[in-house]
Structure formats: structure tokens, C-alpha cells
Design brief:
The chain contains 2 helices and 9 strands; from the N terminus they run αβββββββαββ. The two termini are 25 Å apart. An 8-stranded mixed beta barrel has the order 2-3-4-5-8-9-7-6. A hairpin with a 4-residue loop joins strand 2 and strand 3. The chain is mainly β. The relative contact order is 0.25. The radius of gyration is 15 Å and the shape is globular.
């Protein structure tokens, strides 16, 4: 991600991220207040796998499968809205995830970012409704436009207060292919949610 696009994303990423997720975040707050969704303790930073996987070329994601939480969704492209906030998938009965097109494509070096709803208003649960249930080591498969399947392994799952969203940890440059999945979480507060759920994953393999 370029410096310009990363700054634009950091400014607006959570301002209108998902339905019911009101309010922005403090991009300069440290990530040491994040909690692991499974244990409530401070999670470790994602670590490199023992065997490095070669980064893939650029190819747009077209679908996303997460077997452990029964996700099988098309992936649309998202950009920035006229007000500078990040676009989100439309609120429809056929909910799907969206890839932020100013981030790397899945498998490229850097953090590829995919957003999804936890709920879609009158239509009920969203495509990422069970994201917080994911655990370390579980598989995420991003199928790309060129026919490649980029397979990621979860390194950590974090539930963070939206006021303390760890922008640098989520969107900052990294030297290997990584993936971020983001949705809302925690208790509802009025017309929104208190927290964000973030899945961190690293590329483990790729196949045609």
C-alpha cells in the first residue's frame, strides 16, 4: 500500500466501516490494549512461519472461503467514498465481503484488507458474523482472478475497542504476504458496536 493510500485509509477506515459501527478511531493509539478474542489476554504479534512462502503477483480476489466458520462469499472491490470514508459492501440479502482496492491483493507482499458485515440490518446476520470464533492456524482461501488460490493461516484474532483501533498494526507495511479480515464485534451500543474484530493471517501456500 502506498503511503498516501495508507494515510487515507487510516483516517477513515472505521468511520463508516460496517453497518451499525458508528464513530471513528484514534489511529495513533498503541495496539497494546488489544485483546485476544479467545483468551482475553494481550496477543502476540504475528510471527513468520518456519518456511517462507514466495509472494504472488497482483491478481484481484474474486471469492473467499473460510471453512471453519462456513464462509463462502464472492468478493467485491471497495474504494473510498466521496467523503473520504472507506466504502463498504451494500446492505443486501445476498451479503458479501469486500476487498479494499488500495491494499495489496491477497498473496502480494503487504497487508491485504478484506471487510465484511457482522449484521445487515433487516436482512439479519452478515457474512462475517462468526469471525470472532476463528482460531490460530485455521485456513482462509482467497481465490484470485487469475485462477490462483492463495491459502492463509490465521496467526491471531483480536477484539479491540473501536476507540483504540491499532491502525499501524493492521494497515502498516510488512515484508511478507499477509491478510486482514475486519468486522464489528462486542456488545451493541445504540445503533453500533463497541468493538472491532480483526483476523491476522499469513500466506501459507498457493496453488492454481
Amino acid at each position: 500500500m502506498t503511503l498516501l493510500s495508507r494515510r487515507a485509509f487510516a483516517t477513515a477506515a472505521m468511520a463508516s466501516l460496517l453497518v451499525g459501527c458508528g464513530g471513528g478511531h484514534q489511529p495513533d493509539r498503541a495496539a497494546d490494549q488489544d485483546t485476544d478474542a479467545s483468551s482475553g489476554s494481550t496477543p502476540p504479534s504475528p510471527r513468520p512461519s518456519a518456511k517462507a512462502v514466495r509472494a504472488l503477483g497482483r491478481s484481484v480476489p474474486v471469492s473467499l472461503q473460510i471453512p471453519s466458520i462456513e464462509v463462502d462469499t464472492p468478493v467485491m472491490r471497495l474504494g473510498l467514498a466521496p467523503d473520504g470514508s472507506v466504502e463498504v459492501p451494500p446492505i443486501t440479502a445476498d451479503d458479501q465481503a469486500g476487498w479494499y482496492r488500495h491494499s495489496p491483493t491477497p498473496g502480494q507482499t503487504g497487508p491485504s484488507v478484506i471487510l465484511g458485515h457482522v449484521s445487515v440490518g433487516a436482512y439479519g446476520d452478515g457474512v462475517f458474523r462468526h469471525l470472532a470464533r476463528m482460531r490460530r492456524g485455521e485456513r482462509i482461501v482467497a481465490r484470485l482472478e487469475n485462477g490462483t488460490a492463495a491459502v492463509f493461516a490465521v496467526s491471531s484474532v483480536r477484539t479491540v475497542a473501536q476507540a483504540d483501533f491499532p491502525t499501524d498494526a493492521v494497515y502498516g507495511d510488512v515484508g511478507r504476504p499477509e491478510l486482514r479480515l475486519i468486522t464489528c464485534g462486542g456488545p451493541r451500543t445504540g445503533d453500533g458496536y463497541r468493538d472491532s474484530v480483526i483476523v491476522f493471517a499469513t500466506l501459507s501456500s498457493a496453488s492454481p
